[in-house]
Design goal:
414 residues; alpha/beta; 5-stranded mixed beta sheet; 16 helices
């Protein structure tokens, strides 16, 4: 089966909102064996919607549309689809009941407003699918053996409907075509260097397997995709190639698919019944933010110190004045004292310390922008490492945080 995704919204075209819906949908469709031929982004225009539908239905079996289903006048998708499928709007009692329940649950008042009541109006010839997180239902049309699915543009609403209702419905329509994927998460090596290291393995991949490099600040993802008619055989093939890759780059692989470094580190800390603290300068609390984004992190994360100014390093972390004077804030000596200081202050088993020059100013010949020193204090020793991450402030902060978490991960698995 082939699909096309149409994302509707002027806000997408002017860059005001990032189109995360399309990437999420493409990933989920591929996971159940539906190929995505094209992703189209169009404005809130009846002419553009019609033109996109006419083009899509000549090439795809399934057309998914997101956006334009809100209650305000600028949301025109439902009206356009009603005309396109030559029908009229009717009140769907089940949808109205869902909206009334949502109003009551969220304390919006007993009576549904007239504008929200109109959300229960759907084209007469569609299958209306309740939205568990909002007032706009999804709409499923079928015409000439094609499936058209219109979804809300709000990401968490769209994802909830897809996961609960639509993906299971689409899965039942698929026969004899499978797409199996595995994403390998690496850290500590750039895309080009990684490509050289695994070149021979990549060249020998079977014909039904393909490899994609997906770099982002601080890591490189490798996506292995297998396509064919035998799902069991495809999964076995993926696992066999994955085992080979694990032998080639074990030092760089830290997780798979939807893993995050902060969650992996948290799991290791829980397994060791160990605690953690952080001392951050250039990252400004971003390492702590990642750690505490994991539910249950209070079981192992005690707290942190954002020592952005040297006076905080001196007073709170007990970095010696002589160290700062002789080596500077961005140095092996300082970051190691920061790690020891916060470890003692918080009375933890492990500690992360980061100090660097995030940019865009502050660099020197000896310490250019992107110079980051990271130290990990363990129960028995301390390790430190210098990184040169580049000239972009935001990427430097992200890369530094991931590098720090990965250094901790390596110490935890020793």
């Amino acid at each position: 089966m082939k699909s096309i995704i149409i994302s509707i919204g002027d806000e997408l075209l002017i860059g005001q909102v990032v189109n995360t819906n399309a990437s999420w949908l493409a990933n989920e469709l591929n996971a159940i064996g539906i190929s995505v031929l094209r992703i189209m982004t169009i404005g809130d225009s009846k002419e553009e919607i019609v033109k996109s539908l006419q083009l899509s239905e000549t090439e795809a079996d399934i057309i998914l549309i997101t956006g334009g289903l809100g209650p305000t006048k600028d949301d025109i998708t439902k009206r356009t689809l009603t005309e396109y499928f030559d029908t009229h709007l009717v009140i769907n009692k089940e949808v109205l009941k869902q909206i009334e329940a949502l109003f009551a649950l969220r304390g919006w008042g007993k009576a549904v407003t007239e504008i929200n009541r109109k959300q229960a109006e759907v084209p007469a010839n569609c299958l209306a699918i309740n939205n568990p997180c909002g007032t706009a239902p999804a709409m499923w049309f079928e015409k000439n053996d094609k499936v058209y699915i219109s979804l809300p543009g709000v990401p968490f609403e769209m994802e909830a409907i897809m996961e609960k209702e639509i993906l299971p419905m689409l899965s039942k329509r698929i026969s004899g075509n499978f797409i199996c994927q595995k994403t390998i998460l690496t850290q500590g090596v750039g895309e080009s260097f990684l490509s050289e290291i695994i070149s021979d393995w990549e060249d020998q991949l079977p014909a039904m397997l393909s490899l994609a490099y997906l770099p982002q600040p601080g890591m490189v993802r490798l996506r292995l995709t297998a396509k064919g008619s035998d799902e069991t055989a495809l999964k076995s093939l993926l696992e066999a190639e994955l085992r080979k890759l694990q032998q080639i780059i074990p030092q760089y692989i830290w997780g798979y698919d939807h893993d995050t470094l902060e969650a992996v580190v948290g799991k290791l800390l829980l397994q060791k019944h160990a605690t953690l603290a952080t001392a951050e300068s250039c990252t400004g609390g971003y390492v702590s933010h990642l750690i505490t984004s994991v539910a249950g992190s209070s079981a192992y994360f005690m707290g942190g110190v954002i020592s952005y100014d040297n006076r905080v390093k001196l007073a709170q972390l007990k970095v010696s004045p002589e160290t700062l004077l002789k080596y500077g804030a961005v140095s092996k000596e300082t970051v190691e004292e920061m790690a020891k200081g916060v470890q003692q202050l918080m009375k933890t088993d492990y500690a992360i310390a980061v100090s660097g020059i995030a940019g865009p100013d502050g660099g020197t010949v000896n310490k250019p922008i992107g110079t980051i020193w990271i130290a990990i204090a363990t129960p028995n020793n301390i390790v430190s490492k210098c990184f040169l991450h580049g000239e972009h402030r935001g990427r430097n902060i992200r890369k530094a945080a991931l590098s720090a978490l990965n250094m901790l991960r390596e110490e935890l698995i020793c």
